[in-house]
């Protein structure tokens, strides 16, 4: 087994933040495609454990940071159900998951307590549409649905979603307003949800009473995100982006937002990395919370993003799987807060690609070298986009004996270490191949020689 150096970027992040260097420590990459149906929602428990759902009763789950996914579709959910929202309630001893969907004019909620091996129906409503489910612990939670009979369909659970009760949850609808799937945020007894009526509804007492604030002239609020208590910072989005600094009582337009099209999802964290993200079509935009400059961090090869889900556990924030993004073509993107096998040397964006000679050379057991990755040509204004970097080692016969990295990297200067303790003495070659993630064209290809002497 080769030795992998897993190096977090905590020191680098705080150093760069202190020096004012604008550089992303979050790296997005595409995961292998398992389904082709539209994916509508994701729920990220702690980076390791997450699940996604979509059309045709599709549910996928991971327990190892998204490296592998298990298809637990159907298994009690009818194949004609389009699932639009999912929530991973608990992970021990097995996954308890809730998934909401619809067929025709009827809406349903399904629940599993054995990681998706079997699903049972726990809720149904005629002429309704469940938009979102959110549990604040393994037992207590809230469910939001479009208005039925002139009142919003609001429900609570006290047993992990096995049963739902609407007692004391009365909120009359204004005209023909409705909500949007995933447009719900819950924390500490506070609730916020978006509508198609220029309103964001909010409750400070877990739904016992409600107020609303206006985001007019914006009509639709497709997503809602709030920071940590006391919820001074929050965002809601439609065709434009709105910001609150008083827990949703008032909203003002964020005129610094960039890009075009609907903002379909928003997420972030002000607990550690201080990054926030939103999606338009197939592009993810980001900025540091204290910055006024939005930038493009990732553009998907195809498809449009429908939902982003950040790890909600306070235990695990870093590493692969910090955020999962799902798209309408069945693809999943993953955000990582460090890169395996690579150490960041400088966040300064290089002018060109380069691959240094390894040092020491000749070497015994291990050697290291640096490489620079530049900024790819912009697809949209303000985009900072890196190429897919593959660094491989070849023997004298030209056989690829090891792949040290094969990921999309943001523009920067990196150092990589090769542990050759399991290889025999001789001459080896190492190659840096950079391709454009959007199309696959080669933008840089360099080979150098090194000598292993034992």
Residues in β-strands, percent:
over 45%
Number of domains: 2
* Overall mean confidence score, pLDDT: 89
State the secondary-structure class.
Answer: mainly beta
The appropriate CATH architecture of the largest domain is 7 Propeller
Which CATH top level class of the largest domain fits?
Answer: Mainly Beta
Strand order of the largest sheet: 1-27-26-25
Helix residue percentage: under 10%
- Euclidean distance between termini CA atoms: 19 Å
Identify the CATH homologous superfamily of the largest domain.
YVTN repeat-like/Quinoprotein amine dehydrogenase
What's the count of strands?
Answer: 35
CATH topology heading of the largest domain: Methylamine Dehydrogenase, Chain H
User: What is the 3D form?
Assistant: elongated
Number of contiguous helices: 1
* Rg: 24 Å
How many strands, what sense, and barrel or not for the largest sheet?
4 strands, antiparallel
Task: Name the poorly predicted regions.
Answer: 1-24
Essential attributes:
single chain, 454 residues, mainly beta, Methylamine Dehydrogenase, Chain H, Immunoglobulin-like, 4-stranded antiparallel beta sheet, 1 helix, 35 strands, disordered N terminus
Describe the protein in words:
There is one protein chain. This protein is mainly β. It folds into 2 domains: 26-336, YVTN repeat-like/Quinoprotein amine dehydrogenase (Methylamine Dehydrogenase, Chain H); 342-452, Immunoglobulin-like, CATH 2.60.40. The chain is built from 1 helix and 35 strands. It has one helix at residues 10-19, and strands at residues 27-30, 39-44, 50-54, 58-62, 70-71, 82-90, 96-103, 106-112, 120-126, 130-135, 141-148, 151-157, 184-187, 190-194, 199-203, 211-214, 223-226, 234-237, 241-244, 252-253, 263-268, 275-280, 283-288, 295-299, 305-310, 320-327, 332-336, 342-346, 354-355, 366-373, 388-394, 400-408, 412-419, 426-435, 442-452. The strands form 9 sheets. Strands 1-27-26-25 form a 4-stranded antiparallel sheet, with no helix packed on it. The longest helix has 10 residues, at 10-19.
């Amino acid at each position: 087994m080769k030795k992998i150096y897993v190096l977090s970027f905590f020191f680098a992040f705080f150093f760069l933040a202190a020096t004012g260097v604008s550089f992303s420590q979050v790296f997005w990459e595409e995961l292998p495609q398992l389904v082709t149906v539209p994916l509508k929602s994701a729920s990220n428990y702690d980076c390791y454990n997450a699940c996604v759902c979509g059309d045709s009763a599709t549910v996928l789950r991971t327990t190892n940071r998204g490296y592998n996914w298990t298809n637990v579709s159907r298994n009690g959910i009818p194949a004609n159900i389009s699932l639009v929202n999912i929530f991973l309630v608990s992970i021990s001893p097995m996954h308890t998951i809730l998934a909401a969907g619809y067929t025709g004019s009827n809406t349903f909620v399904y629940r599993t307590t054995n990681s998706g091996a079997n699903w049972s129906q726990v809720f149904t409503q005629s002429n309704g549409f469940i938009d979102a489910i959110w549990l604040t612990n393994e037992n207590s939670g809230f469910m939001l649905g479009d208005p039925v009979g002139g009142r919003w369909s609001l429900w609570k659970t006290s047993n992990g979603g096995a049963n739902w009760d609407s007692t004391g949850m009365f909120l009359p609808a204004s005209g023909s307003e409705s909500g949007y799937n995933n447009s719900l945020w819950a924390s500490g007894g506070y609730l916020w949800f978006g509508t198609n009526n220029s309103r964001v509804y909010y409750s400070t007492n877990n739904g016992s009473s409600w107020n609303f604030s206006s985001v007019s002239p914006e009509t639709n609020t497709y997503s809602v995100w709030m920071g940590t208590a006391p919820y001074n910072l929050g965002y809601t989005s439609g065709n434009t982006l709105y910001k609150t600094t008083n827990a949703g009582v008032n909203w003002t337009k964020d005129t610094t937002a960039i890009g075009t099209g609907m903002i379909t999802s928003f997420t972030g964290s002000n607990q550690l990395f201080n990054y926030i993200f939103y999606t338009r079509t197939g592009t993810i935009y980001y900025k540091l919370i204290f910055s006024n400059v939005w930038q493009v961090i990732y553009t998907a090869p195809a498809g449009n993003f429908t939902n982003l889900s950040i790890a909600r556990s306070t235990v695990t924030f870093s590493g692969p799987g910090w955020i999962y993004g799902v798209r309408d073509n069945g693809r999943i993107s993953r955000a990582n807060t460090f890169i395996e096998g690579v150490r960041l040397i400088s966040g300064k964006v290089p002018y060109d690609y380069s691959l240094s000679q390894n040092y020491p050379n000749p070497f015994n057991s291990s050697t290291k070298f640096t490489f620079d990755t530049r900024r790819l040509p912009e697809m949209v204004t303000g985009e900072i986009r890196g190429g897919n970097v593959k660094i491989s080692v070849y023997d004298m016969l030209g056989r690829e004996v090891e792949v040290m990295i094969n990921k999309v990297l943001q523009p920067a200067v990196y150092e990589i270490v090769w542990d050759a303790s399991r290889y025999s003495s001789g001459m080896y070659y190492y190659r840096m191949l950079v391709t454009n993630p959007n199309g696959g064209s080669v933008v840089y290809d360099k080979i150098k020689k090194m000598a292993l002497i034992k």
